[in-house]
Please model this.
Amino acid sequence: QLQFVESGGGLVQPGGSLRLSCAASGFTLDYYAIGWFRQAPGKEREGVSCIHSGGSSTNFADSVKGRFTISRDNAKNTVYLQMNSLKPEDTAIYYCAATRALCVGDYGRYDYWGQGTQVTVSS
Model:
C-alpha cells in the first residue's frame, strides 16, 4: 500500500522554526518529484515548495523564499521541509505529495498525498 506519513507540525511562536517530515512507505521516492502544499482555513490549497528526484528544488510561494528549505534523503525515503522565521500567515495544514512529472504548482498533477500535519504560528 502506497502511503505518506507527515510529521513535525505543531504550535510555534512567530519567528520560530519547525521541520516537517514526509516519509513514504510502499514505494520508493527515487523516481518522484515531491511537493509540499498547504491549506489554510477558508483558502485554496497552495503550493509551497517542490524537489525533483535529482535534488533540484523550486519554491512556488514567494512568501516562503529565504525562509523555507526543502530537502530529501532517498536512502531514508523521506522529504523534509525546514521552516524558519515562521509567521502567523504560515498557519495551515501542510501536505506532501508525489508526482512522476516535473515539479508544478498545480496540486491536481500529484498522484499520492499524505494526511497532512497542522502548523500553527501564534503567540
